[in-house]
Structure formats: C-alpha cells, structure tokens
Amino acid sequence: MKDRIKQLVSNNAEEVLEIRRHLHANPELSFKEYETSKYVCGVLDKWGIPYKNGFVETGIVVHIEGKNPSSKVVALRGDMDALPILEENDVPYCSKNKGVMHACGHDVHTSCVMGVAKALNELKDEFEGTVKIIFQPGEERLPGGASLMIKEGALENPKASSIVGQHVLPELEVGKVGFRKGMYMASADEVHFTVKGKGGHAALPHYNIDPVLITSHIIVALQQLVSRRTKPGVPCVLSFGHVLADGATNVIPDEVRVQGTFRTMDEEWRREAHVIMKKMAEEMASSMGGSCDFRVDVGYPYVYNDEAVTEFAQTKAQEYLGAENVVELDMRMTGEDFSFYTHHMPGCFYRLGVGNKAKGITSGLHTSTFNVDEKCLEVGTGLMTYIAFEQLTQ
User: Residue 293: what are its φ and ψ, rounded to 5°?
Assistant: First the structure.
C-alpha cells in the first residue's frame, strides 16, 4: 500500500502543484478566504468528492467514506488564510493581491490535503471508516478558525476520534519531517495597554506627567514575570513589539500605546500571569501620577501532541520516508490554533521540511521572501495519505 500511495501521489503531483501555485498567487486574509473557498469547492466538484461548506463562512469539510464508514473516523486539517505581507519573491506565481501573501505556507497545507482527498477517494474501497478533511479559515487571527470550526460542529456527524495536521518548516530540508510528543507549542496571548499622563513641553517636565517614562518602568517591571515569577521549568516569553509615543523631540505626549505577546506552556500560570501583569502595570502607573488601561486578549492554548497518536504517526513517517528523514523537534514558543483541536481530542501536529539551502530557499516564516521547495508537496500529500489510511486499517 505504501508503494501504491506513492504512485497515486506521483500521478496527481502536477495537479497538486498547479493548485498550490494558484493559491499562492491568489492569497486572502483570515476569515476573508471567499475566493479560496470557491476554488477548493470547484476542484472538489471536478473530482466528484462530496463536501459541506459554509463553516465559519469559508470553511469546508470533506468526508471520504470507506467501507462501514461509521466504524472509525479520523480527521486531517489544512488551513487556508494568508498574511498582510507584501511579497518580494520573483516567481511566476507571485501574489497578485498586493500586500497579501502566503508567507506561512498555508497554500502548501491546503494543496496537500486536497491531494490527500483525491488519493483517499481513489482508495476508499480499500479501508473501513471515514476520513474527515477540514479546510479551515482564520488560523492567523484571533479567536482562531479552529475554535470556531469546533463550535460549528466540524468534528461531529460523524465524530472524529483523532486529528492530524502538518505545518511547513523552512529550517528543515525538503524530504524530512519532524515530530515531538507532548507539549510542543506555546499558548499565545496578546497584551495591549495604554499609559496616560499629561503631555507638554519636553523642556518643562515638572509641569507634565510623562507617560513615556512611566511606560519604560512598566515594561521593565513586567519582565520580572519571566525572570522572577515564572515557575521553575515552565517555558515563558513576554515580548513587546509595538510602542507608540506620538510626541516629538520637544513634546511629551499625553499617552503611550503598547502591544506585545505573552506565551507559556502552563495554563494555571497563564491565568495567574494575566492578573499579575494587569495589577503591576496599573499600580505602577498610578504611583507615578498617571493611569494605565491594561487588557490581555486571550489567544490560543498550547499545542499538545497526544503520545499515542504522535507515536503512531511518527512510526508511519519512518516507514514511508525512511527513519533517516524523520527528526525529533525542539519545543517552540510560537503559537498555532491547531491547539484547539488538541485540547478537544487526541491529535498530532508535525512539521514538513520545505527548505533547500542549495537552491537558496531559506527564508523564514512570515517574511516577504518566504518560499518552499515544491518537492515538499509530494512528501506532505503522501505522508498524510499514508497516516490516515493506516489509522483506518489498524
């Protein structure tokens, strides 16, 4: 069956490549994947694969039913949204939507699961049970399309027993994949606060309440959460990437706006830290004569890879690709809304190598020159097909 799947994937490779290039050239932002959804549905119609659309407006769920379809149900996920980035790649399939780009590889994820759908549809007489394939919107934007797909019943009727997803990784050479059991990726919350004071002439600070100075103290003090308050052994990151004090060389502004991210892998500490941060910032601002409006937009939980599902998928990857092409992953502090699935049911989220140093394909995720070695499409399509098929034949 492994060789048969490889042959099927090879037969469909050109079509999957065309799909990826179409998606890359026509990216759409989170929860606005209207044309992407229409395109996916059109291809599924051409292939004669039934689906239900309209989940979270643009989401799609495919059911590939084998013999005795209710005996076991496994799910696969591919996300469809792009990022607000201006693409700088010189390729024929460069983004046509200025300022929008598939800089996180979701075009690869979607085209791979489309290839999986076609391959499994051709093999449906060979397995028992059902493969549920989820085309998901809005991974890049809160509250996360995964959480909304779950709320709208995408995993039900029939109910899936496990879910598998993959994500491109440019640091990993094409042809290789990576796995990690247990905790893998961090929770991801957005931190927003505004410090208010009293602006005025910068040469007369005694007449003012300087929100820039107050903000600097708050930012430094909040770092104590990581260095002094985090439980031993718990990964934790607090970073601020946006600080706007719209004054001038001789003007102290009335307020400063700050945005950042808080990430960890302990849900109890996560909730506790939200309270501590708010109290610390508000009380420090008050002690210096100003005020602080502080909020945390709660984002995605941590990704937890179920031990049994991940062990099974990793073993199948070694069979399909060879043990030398399957690596152990380090823990990451990046976030992923696939985490909602892993808190809802047993799941496995693994990495698909897409880099190629010899070809200069090395740019990181979320950059304007991100691209992939397109050989990854056959690897990603074939491996997901094999994992799903083997799950239903054990």
Answer: -95, 115
